[in-house]
């Protein structure tokens, strides 16, 4: 890759945007008011706005390895706090994807150095759902199911936060779990029952 080409691409992109809307950058510079917080994977094949057909300014994005929301990760917690309490988003999406390298690495019993503490969070997901996962004999299907269960558990971690619980009460904020199928380009809604999970979660994790 020629890094200099990126700057040429940038100039072409600017020209294209201005040709479509000459006030594009004036509006972009005026501030952001996104409705959605998207928490996704850092995988280079998965982009947030492009997958959802949205434009800059319409979605607040946080990405990391395997779309994790560890409760002790100040990065994730700060993003949620800012998006919910200051930007006032009304929807939070945790989006995983099939073929996730982080989830695959967590399934393998090997020492991955600095990645170990991060992947331990995914291995915890496996431990919680071990009975279901061990019953799946096809490794590819087990892998896909762990990707889905990881999204579900990260949604639960989002729901545990005080900001989300408060925003749900005040303005009916919702949390969604999605999967991006990199083989078809399709977004799959896992149809996680937010209200039922919230009811169960708040018995233990209710903040206010």
UniProtKB/TrEMBL annotation:
Keywords: Coiled coil, Lyase, Zinc. It is an enzyme of class 4 (lyase). It comes from the Bacteria. InterPro entries: Carbonic_anhydrase, Carbonic_anhydrase_CS, Carbonic_anhydrase_sf. Its EC number is 4.2.1.1. It catalyses: hydrogencarbonate + H(+) = CO2 + H2O. Belongs to the beta-class carbonic anhydrase family. This is carbonic anhydrase. It comes from Flavobacterium magnesitis.
């Amino acid at each position: 890759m020629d890094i200099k080409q990126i700057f040429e691409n940038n100039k072409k992109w600017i020209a294209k945007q201005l040709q479509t809307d000459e006030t594009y950058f004036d509006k972009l510079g005026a501030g952001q008011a996104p409705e959605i917080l998207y928490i996704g994977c850092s995988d280079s094949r998965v982009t947030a706005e492009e997958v959802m057909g949205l434009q800059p300014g319409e979605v607040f994005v946080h990405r990391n390895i395997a779309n994790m929301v560890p409760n002790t990760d100040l990065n994730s917690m700060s993003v949620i706090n800012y998006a919910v309490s200051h930007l006032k988003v009304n929807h939070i999406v945790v989006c995983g994807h099939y073929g996730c390298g982080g989830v695959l690495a967590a399934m393998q019993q090997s020492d991955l150095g600095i990645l170990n503490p991060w992947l331990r969070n995914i291995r915890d997901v496996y431990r919680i759902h071990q009975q279901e996962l061990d019953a799946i004999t096809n490794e590819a299907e087990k892998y896909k199911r762990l990707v889905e269960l990881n999204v579900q558990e990260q949604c639960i971690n989002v729901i545990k936060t005080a900001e989300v619980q408060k925003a749900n009460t005040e303005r009916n904020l919702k949390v969604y779990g999605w999967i991006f199928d990199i083989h078809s380009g399709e977004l799959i809604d896992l149809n996680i029952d937010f209200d039922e999970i919230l009811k169960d979660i708040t018995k233990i994790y209710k903040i206010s």
